Known about the structure:
globular; Rossmann fold
Amino acid sequence: MWIADQWKDYEVLDCSDGEKLERWGSFILRRPDPQVIWNTKKDDKWRKSNAIYHRSSKGGGEWEFFDLPEQWSITYKDLTFQLKPFRFKHTGLFPEQAVNWDWFSELIRSADRKIRVLNLFAYTGGATISAAAAGASVTHVDAAKGMVGWAKENAASSGLSDAPIRWLTDDCLKFVEREIRRGNRYDAIIMDPPSYGRGPKGEIWKLEDQVYHLICRSSELLSDRPLFFLVNSYTTGLQPAVLTYMISTALKRFGGHVVSGEIGLPVSSTGLILPCGASGRWSAS
């Protein structure tokens, strides 16, 4: 398992009975987590949260705020992220992805050339600004205009307003198809596709039905000297071995090697690791 254990401004304090208790900077949030199927004692720290997200039996849910600003920021190393609790329990950041940011940032810094990165389903730009901070030029693509705007805020907060980042609101698969026709190429590709979603014109995305096709088509955008290819999954049925198989077959012509595994976050109260999805990593060497 790859563990995101370099955070100073974030930690999982505890997890029990379908919830996790997290510290985001100086604020404590209680949020649902479907992987937390154990039921251990919730001590006093659980009663000191600044906000709780309550799930509805009809789907979705809502926040209950006690003492929380509309927006605040946290840092990871030299990067700064703006946080805003919004629908579907999210804050605008997936902290477990920091372990991937560190991995590919080192590859970018160690490369003997300028690296062009394509970030698909790029959300609020954690991977985008990490790659840009490491020296890459990045094309950031997400179907939600609001998420692209939020990513720009994160870039500005991290001192990267003038970094070579191309911001695009677009359907990711359609963008890939157009880039193939245009003959554009990238040295690295990152994709963090949702389990289920809709594009800007109502297009339905279901991960299991479309991800392999997307990986194969995206691989056609790789340059003659690709550096890395990263696929993240939060879908329970998409295990690391499945990621390895898909990436290995789609990128077979490039050689290199693929390693896939779970990613996780340390839980400070127990010393255990909370699983947070999986990642498949291809690298040239």
